[in-house]
Every structure is written in C-alpha cells, then in structure tokens.
Design a protein that fits this description.
By secondary structure, this protein is of the alpha/beta class. It is built from 15 helices and 13 strands. The strands form two sheets. It has an eight-stranded mixed sheet with strand order 7-6-8-9-10-11-13-12, with helices on both faces. The chain has a five-stranded parallel sheet with strand order 2-3-4-1-5.
C-alpha cells in the first residue's frame, strides 16, 4: 500500500501553478461555439478567465457588467479590433442579455471568440424557446476537490467501477473539510479569514447579486432563510416548516429557495423513483455549495461528499454529454441510502456516508439488490481503509474522492 508522504503545504504550492480542471475543455470548445462558465460568487470564474488570457490569448478583452465604464462599452458593443477573445462577466444582470448576445455572436463569431461568465441564470439551456440554443456550451465551475488538488485525472467510464487507487490524502481532505473548496479561504487556511469571508460573501450575495436581478420586498427574511439552511443539510426539506418558521407564505418560501439555488448558494437532490420502485416521499434534500458553513461534523462531511458527486455529475453532463443525475434512495419502509448516481436514468453506483462505521450498511445492500445497482460504496472519514464487505466496498473518503473529478 502506498501513502503519499508530501506535506499539505507542498501540495498547495504545486497546485498554484496548475490549471483549473475546466481550462482545457473550455479552450477546446471556444474554437466551435460560445462558452458559458457559471458558478457561485468567488468560486474562481474571473481567475480562470484571466488564466486563459494569460496562457493562451495574447489579445483579449474583459468586460465586467458591474464596472460602469465596462458596462457603457459593452452596451455600445465597442470591442477592441485587435482582440481575439471577448470575456463578458456578469452580463446576466442585463435584462435583455440573451438577445444582445445572440446578435453580437451571429454577426461577429468569425472575428471573436466569446467566453461568458456569471454567478446566475447562465444555465438556461433547459428552457424551451432559448434564443441562444445551439450557440454555446455551458460549464458549471465547482469548488476545489481532492482529485483536482492532487492533479490526478481519473479515467471515469459510466457503468465501470470507479478507478480507485492505493493512494491516501488524509491531510488534504482534513483541510478541505474544514475550510471548504472555495479558493480564498482554502488557500489561506485561516479560521478568522474563513469567518469574515462567510459574512462578506453572503452580504454581497444579498445586497448586490440578488438585488441586481430580482425584486425582493423582504430581503431581511430571505437572509434569515439562508441562515437557517446550514442546519437543514442532509435532512428532508420541508417548505411548510420553513414557511412557518419565517412567518411567510408557502409561495414566498419556495420562491426564495429557488432564487438562492439559482445563485448557487445551495442545491437540492431528489429521491430516485421509477415505476418499479416507489419512494416514500418526493421531498428533496438540501446541501450547500460551501460546505464549510455547516457546523455539524457528520452533516458537513455528508455535504462534502454530495458536492463532489454533483461535480462529477455536472462534468459528465457539461463535458461528456451524458444524461447524468444525482439522487438519494428512500423507500416506503423508510430504508435509506445517501446517494445514487445514474446515467441515462440507469443506476451506476450508490454511496452511503458514515464518519467511522466499518460495518456495511444493510440498506445499501438492499437497494443494490433491489435496483440492480452495479457498484456500492460506503465512504468513511477515517483514512487508510479499503475493504469489501457483503458486496459493498468500504473505503476512506480521501481514496474515494480521488477517483472522481
């Protein structure tokens, strides 16, 4: 068994000169269409764009909708004649951005490449009548993961076993668990900065980002909602309960949840339900994009695993074109397993998350047999574990996460 012996700080130094995991894919797609990069505030979209300019384009132009001068030039379509790449940041805050972008791309696509970045409303491809349909590829940028930080690129193939290797990165996982995967707090490794970063990021999310594109009459109660959500991670999400706690209508509570999700504050996963398998309820579970906001150790660890699985699913959809989804499992007898990854609605692998439990989950075994799930994993926080028990592979989280994206 091989254990990676280099210190965590040394790994950070190596990582600082590496590219983000989406960079090569974005460059490839820019030669064919516009590329949209969406993701939470401060996830690294602007830094990624700057890296692409610095490494691959000698002549590029960057326009940020939040900058008054940039905004005037953008609206007047004053593009530098010498530029090869146009980067438009936060353009979704302009009400007519889709029509504007369609006109510019259709008339100038032979002259410029277009890279569009933003923290909300770029993932519009699901909606019918999209005026930009067929003109762009969308990527969703995720927080740092163990696989990305280690520089390992797993050879993932749907319906094949995950490419798990004999390598452990326990120290690096500990840092990710505590500080989250957003670049600034993770790379600083300072608890005081983490607390200040949480406060400032959330304040700007409400006072700037959401207010720029949504009319919210009771922003104070919506902020209270966001304060409540870290305590609801991993549990069935009851909008009625939230409505009662806030003293607002069901419609308002549901609408605010949708808005926060569109700004990548949280994400929801739903129970897997098919004609051959009935779920007890269709109520979703909720997780945060920034798991470092979750105080409870077990809930935070489950959130970390959920975030990494969502990163895998988005990669399979955005880059590889698979119809991949992330679900959880729960039946009428209240048996439950934390996660199920599907491709083309066919189960690929199931995951149960535990802090230390080394005995295989009987619920995981039941669902594997009932739904004919090819692979099942019980992921634990303790490092140095990898055993097969009753058809379930029980292994350390660092080893499991290195096999993802």
């Amino acid at each position: 068994m091989y254990f990676f012996a280099l210190g965590v700080n040394y790994l950070y130094t190596i990582f600082m000169v590496r590219s983000r995991y989406l960079e090569s894919s974005i460059l490839e797609d820019l030669s064919k269409k516009m590329v949209f990069v969406a993701g939470p505030r401060q996830i690294g979209k602007t830094t990624l764009a700057a890296d692409i300019i610095g490494k691959h384009f000698r002549q590029a132009a960057y326009f940020n909708w939040d900058n008054q001068g940039n905004r005037r030039d953008l609206m007047a379509a004053r593009w530098p004649a010498s530029a090869k790449l146009l980067i438009l940041d936060e353009i979704h805050k302009f009400k007519g951005w889709k029509g504007f972008l369609k006109g510019q791309y259709d008339s100038l696509k032979t002259r410029y490449k277009f890279l569009i970045t933003g923290s909300a409303r770029l993932d519009i491809y699901r909606r019918g009548g999209d005026s930009l349909q067929g003109r762009y590829h969308l990527y969703r940028l995720h927080p740092f993961s163990l696989a990305e930080l280690s520089g390992r690129k797993a050879n993932l193939q749907p319906f094949k076993e995950l490419p798990i290797q004999e390598v452990f990165f326990g120290d690096l996982l500990t840092a990710l668990d505590k500080f989250g995967g957003f670049p600034e707090p993770f790379l600083s490794q300072e608890e005081r900065l983490l607390r200040r970063w949480h406060n400032e990021r959330n304040e700007r999310l409400f006072r700037e980002d959401i207010q720029d594109v949504e009319l919210i009459r009771d922003l104070g109660r919506m902020k209270l909602l966001s304060d409540m959500l870290p305590e609801k991670v991993g549990a069935l999400l009851s909008v009625n309960s939230i409505r009662e706690d806030l003293g607002v209508s069901y419609r308002a509570a549901a609408h605010w949840l949708d808005i926060l999700e569109s700004f990548y504050y949280h994400f929801r996963i739903h129970p897997y339900a098919r004609s051959s398998f009935r779920s007890l309820k269709k109520v979703p579970k909720l997780y945060l994009w920034d798991w470092s906001e979750v105080s409870g150790e077990a809930a935070r660890f489950e959130n970390l695993i959920a975030s990494n699985l969502l990163k895998l699913v988005h990669w399979l959809r955005d880059r590889e074109g698979y119809k991949a989804e992330l679900y959880f499992l729960r039946d009428e007898a209240q048996r439950e397993a934390d996660f199920l990854v599907t491709v083309d609605e066919r189960p690929w692998f199931a995951v149960e998350v535990k802090l230390q439990e080394l005995s295989a989950s009987p619920h995981l075994r039941y669902f594997r047999e009932k739904l004919k799930i090819p692979f099942s994993y019980q992921v634990i926080k303790k490092s140095g574990v990898d055993v097969l028990s009753e058809g379930t592979r029980i292994l350390s989280a660092d080893k499991f996460l290195l096999a993802l994206i």
